[in-house]
């Protein structure tokens, strides 16, 4: 853990002493908790949702609260690769927070009351050195507080607690904006709110993660509406409105105004304003006498003030007491009029537990106990409490200014936020204090006192002396030393001025903290630009890599957009980023040799490799080294291994992407997790695009359908997994003789091209730390991506229609319609795709939920059964939606013609379908010219006519005989156990099942079956089965989606409709659609006959196959195992068809 230089061996090593001291102080906090049997990191409801199935605690622990995960990362890597499980027992999750449990009796019911607070290890730190949000959505001082009650039966002893188990969760965290208060010895440092290009995305990432984990959010903001805190309130409300997530509700409560003059009983005004939401969100309730869970908590209250300490403690304790009364009434311990206030013994415990809880959280963040705890302990505000608050305020001021630097270093060291290069500590003198010699030679308060005395004696006016002291106060602040550049840049804004020399005091104030060398002449008017540049470098979006380098450092050659737009950023090769890979590099002791670069994504680069042991080629994914990427990779590997090992003899196993190997590669700076997959061809979307004039022939669709169902049968029955994102993009075409294709490609393709690019310094490489020259003069060779060519001369990109994973991929590109199997980001490349299979490590956390994410999936205006108006043109909504897409991503076909036939109207249209029969498309009408787009114009060849390649499907084709096509189901990154869902927000919009649309939590494997039916329809028709569109304020996409389903398939039972989170938003009490009153039924059989010109017999046969999979009542829907042998899949009667492969 301590990266000491092995070449430096001395008895007295100041670096080791300093770092060991940081660890000792951090461990002495007294806030670490662990259990050998109970998972302290997960709330009760999460443990019920996923029991772990016999897994060790470290395997199921909540990543946010697994505080010692960085310390045990080497053990975890070894345990994953240890089939005998000998290492696992040495790994134990440790919680950083509070834990208190007490017993009492209420109304003859024995009770055990427990209060747990879990602090997140992400963005951990101290009050002034960790504020706001980072670009991944993690906020400072994030705490999850769970109130647990075990309630026994009436008349039983405290040893018998076999009755009810209740849990209620609240959360708190820093305001999710980029902001800071630079401590400079002033009692209230100047507030800096940074409005950056990424501010909205950072807040959205934070809120989406909260919704994914907890459900609906009530954002309670307690900051002041005037004075120092007003800019924070205004910025918060501005970005909340811009993000505009439907499951997030904002509630402002001016705490100090409403509760002034010690009127703290007025906190009830806040409770009244959020009462309805708290009733709807509920709590977790499990009863030993009932076989199923009685209630689940569907949302949380997220409370914040400036520090998330004092005002937040008061508000959270009031919310907790309100919910406690509600719980005891619901389970029959209380009558409706009763309250815990009348039970003195219990209230004594309750108040003191919440007060102690507030003190512990406050000490961890600010260094002192919480303010206003007299109200929490007694229920009223006392003058003695106000006096105690004054003492605590003074202590906070002193600790935050003079002692928090080493404390922040302790957090960074313990959690892995500081990841130096090997030997960097011994080489850089990092343990040395960089403040002026006289300042660091005496205790902090003594040096400050001497400075104040000198200022007072030197300057004739008191005002001048005070001004000088204020101007140079930052020199006496105890700053962190491990990440100094991060701290200075991140917590300084345009209003911050550096210290200046004072006449006669230069020996005290002139040689300021060396962090000043990072900011030039202090943070002047250009500070904001420097701060933005630092953020861009961290996110890999900097246009010029020389922006944030130190003035005296090496000149870094900027990488211009025209040169680097299609490859990864050089800035991402800093610590925590990509591994610098070159051709002929070897991995795993020489087993794997790099042949060429296939592509890259936000989380990894992907390379074609030769496996010397097996004498074949594979695809190697090299994951970034930062902890968050490595943890996601480990989780993915566990899932892939389980899928591989479930039942290799099952016939469906052949239709799941193959995972070959994983290992950890130690590079010159960091360790990187590597994953080896089989190389695959393009996805089904490419096949659909090439056959868009009349759809993929039925014989081929039947072959593909059977293989998909067999693959799903394997996932469902053998692995108990729900894929949750079946769609054409995630079904890859396997190339049967891939080795011959690769060898041919390698022998005929041109040599890979690359460019040598300077790497901008990382954020923690300067500011008082001497960077060795070998690390300052760093360059990296960035290779151009070369995806392997498709074996078919007609392979083209399907990228003209869509390519993004689920609801959004924020920092990835998808080109050529192919993706790494199992990834949502795809690879960036310029050739038609034969891309390697991969895991879903590239996808961001958000999945498309029942209410769409604000970030759109960029597509051309879609055509579907539900999106074509009666005149055959896209609806106005689709056009207006297209206008909102950034111009760089808009893909507009230069020329695209389809068979000119009068299409049936939207399912919501008020006119009867118009049918024109007998039209035969010409070859010219089937020709499609793909777009001139910034992403694709230089990368894609034009589409050849359909007649260039014809494939004759042999009669009597069996799925296990040599087949014209074999598919592989990929993108298992969103897969989840059927009974312990990782999330309730599943499936891409067009393939989303009804139970997911209105937010049921009891969906199962049949959700994949619904999606499969939608894919089969799309293969046959080259159009979506459902493609809902919102109509402004009239109705949402969910409303339109349900209307299309009912029009096509008919109505379904009321109890199915009303069992979801969004049911009451979509349906009224009778089960009718709330906002769409007029429906025009158009059954599937009629659609196939009237719109797609099927014969009645063919339409009947197809409907016999699709309708069991499209039952809106998921309880009656067919399973994959029910459909694999369906008569429609029999190829015996199929005639030979032409298909563009």
Mind explaining what this structure looks like?
It catalyses: L-threonyl-[protein] + ATP = O-phospho-L-threonyl-[protein] + ADP + H(+); L-seryl-[protein] + ATP = O-phospho-L-seryl-[protein] + ADP + H(+). Residues 830-864 have a biased composition (Low complexity). Its EC number is 2.7.11.1. InterPro entries: Kinase-like_dom_sf (IPR011009), Prot_kinase_dom (IPR000719), Protein_kinase_ATP_BS (IPR017441), SAC_dom (IPR002013), Ser/Thr_kinase_AS (IPR008271). The chain is built from 36 helices and 25 strands. The longest helix is centred in the first third of the chain and has 23 residues, at 344-366. The protein has three domains: 31-410, no CATH class; 421-539, no CATH class; 684-749 and 786-1129, Transferase(Phosphotransferase) domain 1 (Transferase(Phosphotransferase), domain 1), CATH 1.10.510. It is globular. Strand 2 (95-106) and strand 3 (109-119) form a beta hairpin. The protein has 1141 residues and is α+β, with helices and mostly antiparallel strands. Strands 1, 2, 3, 4, 5, 8, 9, 10 and 11 form a nine-stranded mixed sheet that branches.
């Amino acid at each position: 853990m301590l990266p000491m230089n092995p070449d430096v061996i001395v008895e007295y090593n100041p670096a080791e002493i300093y770092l060991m001291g940081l660890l000792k102080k951090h461990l002495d906090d007294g806030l670490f908790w662990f259990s050998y049997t109970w998972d302290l990191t997960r709330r009760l409801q999460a443990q019920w949702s996923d029991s772990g199935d016999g897994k060790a605690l470290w395997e199921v622990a909540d990543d946010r609260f697994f505080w010692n995960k960085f310390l045990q990362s080497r053990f975890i890597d070894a345990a994953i690769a240890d089939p005998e499980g000998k290492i696992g027992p040495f790994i134990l999750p440790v919680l950083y927070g509070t834990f208190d449990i007490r017993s009492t009796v209420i109304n003859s019911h024995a009770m055990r009351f427990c209060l747990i607070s879990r602090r997140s290890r992400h963005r951990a730190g101290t009050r002034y050195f960790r504020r706001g949000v980072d670009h991944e959505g993690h906020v400072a001082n994030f705490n999850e507080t769970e109130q647990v009650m075990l309630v026994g039966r009436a008349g039983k002893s405290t040893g018998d607690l076999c009755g009810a188990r209740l849990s209620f969760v609240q959360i708190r965290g820093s305001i999710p904006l980029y902001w800071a208060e630079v401590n400079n010895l002033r009692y209230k440092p100047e507030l800096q709110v940074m409005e950056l290009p990424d501010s909205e995305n950072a807040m959205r990432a934070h809120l989406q993660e909260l919704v994914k984990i907890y459900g609906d959010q009530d954002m309670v903001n307690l900051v002041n509406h005037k004075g120092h805190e007003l800019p924070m309130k205004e910025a918060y409300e501005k970005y909340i409105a811009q993000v505009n997530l439907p499951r997030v509700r904002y509630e402002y409560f001016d705490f100090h105004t409403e509760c002034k003059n010690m009127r703290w009983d007025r906190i009830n005004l806040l409770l009244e304003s959020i009462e309805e939401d708290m009733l709807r969100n509920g709590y977790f309730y499990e009863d030993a006498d009932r076989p199923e869970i009685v209630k689940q908590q569907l949302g949380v209250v997220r409370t914040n003030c400036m520090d998330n300490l004092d005002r937040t403690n008061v508000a959270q304790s009031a919310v907790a007491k309100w919910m406690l009364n509600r719980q005891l009434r619901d389970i029959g311990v209380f009558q409706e009029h009763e309250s815990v206030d009348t039970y003195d013994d219990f209230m004594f415990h309750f108040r003191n537990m919440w007060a102690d809880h507030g003190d512990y959280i406050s000490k961890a963040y600010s260094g002192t106990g919480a303010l206003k705890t007299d109200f929490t302990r007694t229920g009223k505000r006392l003058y003695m409490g106000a006096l105690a608050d004054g003492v605590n305020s003074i202590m906070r001021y002193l600790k935050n200014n003079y002692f928090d630097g080493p404390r922040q270093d302790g957090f960074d060291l313990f959690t892995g936020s500081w990841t130096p290069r090997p030997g960097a500590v011994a080489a850089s003198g990092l343990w040395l204090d960089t403040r002026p010699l006289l300042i660091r030679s005496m205790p902090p308060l003594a040096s400050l006192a001497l400075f104040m005395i000198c200022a007072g004696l030197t300057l004739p006016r008191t005002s001048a002396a005070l001004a000088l002291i204020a101007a140079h106060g930052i020199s006496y602040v105890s700053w962190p030393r491990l990440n100094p550049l991060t701290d200075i840049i991140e917590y300084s804004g345009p209003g911050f001025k550096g210290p200046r020399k004072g006449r006669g005091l230069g020996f005290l104030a002139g040689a300021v903290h060396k962090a000043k060398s990072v900011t030039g002449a202090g943070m002047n008017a250009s500070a904001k630009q420097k701060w933005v540049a630092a953020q861009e470098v961290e996110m890999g979006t900097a246009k010029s890599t020389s922006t944030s380098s130190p003035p005296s450092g090496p000149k870094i050659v900027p990488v211009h957009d025209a040169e680097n737009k299609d490859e990864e950023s050089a800035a991402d090769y800093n610590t925590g980023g990509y591994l610098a890979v070159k051709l002929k590099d070897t991995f795993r002791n020489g087993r794997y040799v790099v042949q060429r670069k296939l592509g890259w994504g936000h989380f990894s680069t992907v390379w074609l490799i030769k496996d010397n042991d097996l004498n074949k080629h594979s695809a190697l994914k090299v994951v970034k080294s930062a902890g968050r990427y490595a943890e996601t990779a480990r989780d993915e590997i566990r899932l892939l291994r389980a899928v591989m090992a479930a039942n290799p003899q099952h016939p469906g196993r052949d239709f799941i992407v193959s995972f070959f190997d994983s290992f950890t590669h130690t590079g010159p700076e960091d360790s990187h997790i590597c994953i080896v997959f089989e190389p695959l061809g393009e996805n089904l979307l490419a096949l659909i695009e090439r056959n868009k004039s009349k759809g993929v022939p039925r014989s081929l669709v039947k072959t593909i359908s059977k293989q998909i169902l067999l693959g799903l049968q394997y996932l469902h029955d053998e692995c108990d997994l729900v894929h949750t994102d079946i769609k054409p993009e995630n079904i890859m075409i396997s190339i049967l003789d891939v080795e011959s294709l690769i060898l041919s490609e390698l022998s005929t393709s041109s040599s890979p091209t690359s460019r040598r690019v300077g790497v901008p310094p990382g954020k923690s490489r300067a500011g008082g730390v001497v960077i060795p020259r070998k690390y300052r003069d760093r360059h990296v060779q960035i290779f151009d991506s070369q995806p392997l060519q498709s074996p078919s001369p007609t392979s083209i990109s399907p990228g003209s229609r869509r390519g993004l994973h689920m609801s959004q991929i924020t920092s990835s590109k998808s080109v050529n319609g192919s993706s790494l199997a199992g990834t949502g980001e795809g690879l960036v490349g310029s050739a038609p795709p034969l891309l390697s299979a991969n895991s879903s490590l590239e996808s961001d956390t958000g999945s498309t939920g029942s209410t769409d994410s604000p970030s759109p999936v960029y597509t051309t205006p879609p055509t579907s059964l539900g999106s074509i108006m009666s005149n055959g043109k896209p609806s106005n909504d689709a056009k207006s939606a297209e206008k909102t897409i950034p111009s760089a991503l808009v893909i507009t076909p230069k020329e695209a013609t389809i068979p000119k036939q009068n299409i049936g109207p939207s399912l919501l249209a008020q006119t009867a379908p118009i049918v024109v029969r007998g039209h035969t498309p010409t070859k010219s009408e089937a020709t499609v010219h793909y777009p001139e787009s910034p992403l694709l114009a230089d990368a894609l060849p034009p589409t050849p006519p359909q007649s260039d390649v014809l494939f004759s499907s042999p009669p009597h084709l069996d799925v296990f005989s040599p087949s014209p096509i074999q598919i592989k189901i990929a993108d298992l990154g969103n897969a989840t156990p059927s009974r312990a869902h990782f999330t309730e927000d599943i499936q891409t919009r067009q393939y989303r099942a009804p139970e997911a649309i209105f937010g049921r939590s009891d969906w199962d494997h049949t959700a994949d079956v619904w999606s499969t039916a939608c894919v089969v329809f799309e293969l046959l028709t080259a159009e979506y089965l459902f493609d809902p569109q919102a109509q402004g304020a009239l109705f949402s996409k969910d409303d339109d989606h349900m209307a299309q389903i009912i029009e096509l398939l008919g109505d379904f039972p009321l109890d199915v409709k009303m069992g979801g989170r969004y049911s009451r938003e979509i349906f009224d009490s009778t089960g009718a659609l709330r906002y769409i009153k007029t429906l025009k039924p158009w059954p599937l059989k009629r659609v196939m006959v009237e719109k797609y010109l099927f014969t009645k017999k063919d339409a009947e046969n197809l409907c016999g196959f699709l309708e069991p999979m499209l039952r809106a009542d998921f309880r009656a829907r067919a399973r994959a195992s029910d459909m694999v042998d369906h008569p429609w899949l029999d190829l015996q009667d199929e005639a030979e068809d032409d298909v563009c492969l």
